[in-house]
Design a protein that fits this description.
single chain, alpha+beta, Dna Ligase, domain 1, D-amino Acid Aminotransferase, Chain A, domain 1, five-stranded antiparallel β-sheet, four-stranded parallel β-sheet
């Protein structure tokens, strides 16, 4: 019996961005082309039960492609992925690796300790009291981020301590008092641009340069950025492979900033990178095909 492709998604239009819809439609189109059995399942409909029949759920040997945002229904998604993994369902990345990639602080701290260049980053808690001297080892501008989030959301460019103080005060007034933020040294030379590398099972598929033609410092395509070909060099390939190895990642989008000395700095690792922007530049590449053919 042929194994099946399952696509895990979220029904919410708000949670299911155009990027995710494109990934679903692309996966379905490729399954049809290959005459593979497939089904789209939604996390809202899944009931996890140790004794329940698994007739309508992925089974051993099937392949699950998740397009759920890491911060959407986080706990249930984690339980679902662990449940399927223990059932013998093939996943692109392990639930443990996905959890690390979804947390910018964990990603940056683990990789920094492994010798990967990352911008100077500090984790702060909103309930604590800070003064300007607490940030004397940073040079403004800095970037402030929420530990979780994607598509450029929850990221702020801060020019001076007064702006940082205002942001912390505002965040304290609207968030849980124990909420945390990352303060990160800005790589000024890379403002409005970044490099996205796609790596799959130890092989660098390629890279794109994302540039925001407007005034935003965010290069994400979702934030108005555009993509062009970025030629990979030995240093970039070596860094990308080491990052994937350290985090135990099979497939990911790895984002780098580049300073004026052409040094690369890791900023984020995305377990569910968008396909469309990368494939619009690397027109001979199908990331769905890369994954589906590998697992089915």
């Amino acid at each position: 019996m042929s194994k099946k492709l399952w696509i895990l998604a979220n029904r919410s239009d708000q949670a299911l961005s155009q990027t995710k819809r494109d990934k679903i439609s692309g996966s379905v189109a490729y399954a049809k082309k290959k005459n593979l059995p497939y089904e789209v399942i939604y996390i809202e409909d899944i009931v996890l039960d140790t004794t329940a029949s698994k007739k309508n759920l992925p089974g051993k040997g099937d392949f699950l492609l998740s397009v759920v945002k890491s911060e959407t229904r986080k706990e249930k998604t984690r339980y679902i992925l662990h449940f399927f993994q223990s059932s013998g369902v093939k996943l692109v990345n392990s639930p443990d690796a996905i959890e690390i990639m979804a947390d910018k602080w964990l990603t940056n701290s683990i990789l920094a300790h492994a010798g990967i260049p990352v911008p100077h980053t500090r984790l702060i808690t909103l309930s604590e009291v800070y003064s300007e001297s607490d940030f004397s080892d940073f040079s403004f501008p800095v970037v402030v981020k929420t530990p979780e989030g994607s598509l450029g959301n929850g990221v702020y460019w801060i020019e001076n301590y007064r702006e940082l103080e205002d942001l912390l005060s505002f965040s304290y007034s609207v968030s849980s008092k124990e909420s945390q933020l990352l303060v990160q040294q800005a790589i000024v030379a890379s403002k409005g641009t970044d490099i996205r590398v796609i790596i799959s099972h130890g092989t660098v598929i390629g890279a794109i340069k994302r540039t925001n033609p407007g005034h935003s410092f965010k290069a994400n395509l979702k934030q108005g950025g555009s993509a062009t070909l970025y030629p990979t060099d030995e240093k970039l390939i070596k860094l990308s492979k080491k990052i994937a190895s350290v985090l135990g990642v099979n497939f990911a989008g790895i984002d780098f900033l580049v300073d004026d000395q052409k040094n690369y700095y890791l900023t984020e690792v995305n377990a569910f990178p968008g396909f469309k922007g990368f494939e619009s530049v690397h027109t001979s590449v199908s990331l769905v095909q890369e994954l589906v053919d590998r697992y089915l």
